């Protein structure tokens, strides 16, 4: 299964970051969302050494279809950042690991 993914971060406060993973081309079911969040947590832990990374998964592209998954506080912070256009999305880092590259096996 191929997925188009982008990645961004939102500052929760001066020393804490929320990692945001956006699924662009499909809607995932709950087990897939959980698997993708666990994969992102593992990536963040190995890459940055953060022991308990906060991850939010975003699906949908309009205000009406937007679905966010994660800790309720983090979801609120990310939702506000989305509506204020405060997230810069990048696929580059994920492409290095084969996550967001078109045609990559991301499942």
Write the layout of secondary structure elements.
Elements lengths: L4 E9 L2 E8 L6 H19 L5 E6 L7 E3 L2 H12 L8 H5 L11
Parallel strand pairs: 2-3
Antiparallel strand pairs: 1-2, 3-4
Helix proportion? 25-40%
Class from helix and strand fractions: alpha+beta
Tell me the span between the first and last alpha carbons: 6 Å
The count of β-strands is 4
User: Strand content of the residues, in percent?
Assistant: 15-25%
* Overall pLDDT metric: 84
CATH class: Alpha Beta
Cα gyration radius (Å):
13 Å
CATH architecture: 2-Layer Sandwich
CATH topology: Alpha-Beta Plaits
Shape: globular
What does this structure look like?
The radius of gyration is 13 Å and the shape is globular. A four-stranded mixed beta sheet has the order 1-2-3-4, sandwiched between helices. The protein is α+β, with helices and mostly antiparallel strands. The protein has a single domain, classed as Alpha-Beta Plaits (2-Layer Sandwich), CATH 3.30.70. The chain has three helices and four strands, in the order ββαββαα. The model is unreliable at 101-107 (pLDDT under 50).
């Amino acid at each position: 299964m191929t997925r188009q993914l982008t990645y961004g971060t939102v500052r929760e406060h001066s020393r804490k970051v929320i990692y945001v993973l956006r699924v662009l081309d499909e809607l995932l079911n709950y087990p897939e969302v959980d698997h993708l969040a666990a994969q992102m947590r593992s990536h963040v832990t190995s890459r940055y050494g953060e022991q308990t990374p906060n991850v939010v998964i975003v699906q949908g592209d309009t205000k009406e279809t937007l679905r966010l998954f994660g800790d309720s506080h983090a979801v609120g912070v990310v939702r506000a950042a989305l509506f204020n256009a405060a997230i810069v999305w990048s696929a580059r880092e994920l492409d290095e690991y084969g996550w967001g590259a078109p045609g990559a096996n991301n499942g």
